[in-house]
Amino acid sequence: MKRSLLLISMMLVLPVTLIGCATSGDLEKVQAEQKLIDAKAEQALQDAQAAKAAADAAKLRADETSARAEDAIKAAEERERIADEKAQKADAAFQRSMRK
Amino acid sequence: MKSVQEKAWSFPGHPEKEIERNEFTVAKGEDVIGRLAVIRLEKGDTLPDIARHFGLGINAISTANPGVDIWVPEAGESIMLPLSFILPDAPRKGIVVNLATMRLFQYKEDDKSLVVSTYPVGVGTKERPTPRGQMRVARKATRPTWHVPASIAEDHRKKGDPLPAEVPPGPQNPLGEYALYLSKSGYLIHGTNKPASIGLKATNGCMRLYPENVKKLYNDTPVNTPVVIVNQPYLIGQRDGVLYMEAHTPLEGSGTVEQEKVYAKLRNIEDKSARTLDWKKVKEVQTEARGIPVPIFEIRQGSEKEVPKPIKVEHPDKLYGKPEIPELRLDAWYVLAADVREEIDALRIAAIINHQGPQIPARVLSRNKGYRVIAGPFNDISEAKDAAKRLKIDLDIDGILIEPVQKG
């Protein structure tokens, strides 16, 4: 009976000891890896944020440029319209002046 | 079959010095006369000056060159001279006037050939249109007196510019130097003191010609010559086995009827030839209404090489009839006609003033922040006041009198 109990006890203690040794070794490794990954993640996040910020800035610039271009087009169209209007007005006056 | 209506008017080779503009021989069975031409504009040109030199009306040159500024075109720009015409569908004798194209055709036949002289005309306004129909030259007169019709006298009175009952021959006489009185009472073919009005709907029903053209017409036209006045905005005719179409903007209210007439003629040609016409092309020509004969159909197949290309014409040293501006004088009176920021506006106003009839000389003076249009020189205050009055009445310009710098 005693021998059986000892055997059972040994069977229980040995794996536990073995498990305990494996966990502490791996933990350090995992922690180190986690740090690396975290650093990578941080870098990636920073990169992504930087990229987004750059993209946002570029979009803003593009929007501003587009708005300026639109304004310039509108201004040019307005100038053209005014010039056409002036030319048409002048021509209409000329045609009237050609009557007897 | 290549179109002659393409926009890129740059042609290799040396330009021609001269091109026929008024007198053409009509080959038997043919309806198209003349040649299209192109000319490169120079600084200071206006379309009315180019038009007059080449015997064209202002309507013809501006519709042939859409988008080109009439008064301030760009120097170096090539423009089309529409010096090819389809003869109106009317008997080829005497005088035929096509109101839609604003062109007069005078036929002269001898034993061998039929010759046609053609001139641009100014015609009646929408309110006072030129009458259509058959008439004849009832009498002729040089240096005619203008008996002012009551309606015109009333118009002028309303404008604050009362006219005498009669205007004697001279620069103020709108009939010019020659007149052909038509059998339809009150209607004349005459000259003008406003040459820039040729090709405009600007008369009270008469037909006016450039002074140089009316002189020739007067000398070539005996009393009793038949005169037919038609309205044909869509013309078709053939030359060298090719059918051409020439489209003009129809006079008010006549578009649909005239379109039907020309479509009927085209359908007839289609039936006779047993081939299908390019109706898309027909519609295109009609929509563009450039007043240029455009080939639309080969009546005789294989006529491709016979469609003539526009010829390049050399710019003359001096354009006939171009208004001249006298030198500035310190002892003269002037009228400040405009003070504007843009040079193009000043140039346009000056050109329009210069093309009044009789001419009011005007030039552009540049200054620090803009441009001034100065009319003159005038010999005395009375001349300057007259010019200022005309500027106000005719062009709604409020001119300011400028005294002489030095007393003469």
Describe the structure concisely.
The complex is a heterodimer of chains A (100) and B (408). Chain A is mainly alpha-helical and 100 residues long.
Could you walk me through the main structural features you see in this protein, from its secondary elements to its overall organization?
- Chain A is an all-alpha fold and 100 residues long.
- Chain A is rod-shaped and about 140 Å long.
- Chain A contains one helix and no strands.
- The mean pLDDT of chain A is 79.
- Chain B has 408 residues and is α+β, with helices and mostly antiparallel strands.
- Chain B has a domain at 333-402: Alpha-Beta Plaits.
- Helices cover 22% and strands 29% of the residues of chain B.
- Chain B contains eight helices and 25 strands.
- In chain B, the strands form seven sheets. Chain B has a nine-stranded mixed beta sheet, with helices on one face. A four-stranded antiparallel beta sheet of chain B has the order 23-24-22-25, with helices on one face. In chain B, strands 4-3-21 form a three-stranded mixed beta sheet.
- Chain A binds chain B through residues 83, 86-87, 90-91, 93-100, and chain B through 69-71, 122, 125, 152, 174, 194, 196-197, 200, 202-204, 342, 344-345, 348-349, 352, 355-357, 394-396.
Helix/strand structural class of chain A: mainly alpha
CATH class of the domain at 333-402 in chain B: Alpha Beta
The low-pLDDT segments of chain B are 2-8
Strand neighbour order, sheet with most strands of chain B: 1-8-7-6-17-10-13-14-16
Q: Which term fits the overall shape of chain A?
A: rod-shaped
Average pLDDT score of chain A = 79
The name of the CATH topology of the domain at 333-402 in chain B is: Alpha-Beta Plaits
Quaternary state of this entry equals: heterodimer
Nearest-angstrom radius of gyration of chain B? 23 Å
Helix/strand-derived category of chain B reads: alpha+beta
Low-pLDDT segments of chain A: none
- The portion of residues forming beta strands of chain A comes to under 5%
- Report mean pLDDT of chain B, rounded to a whole number: 93
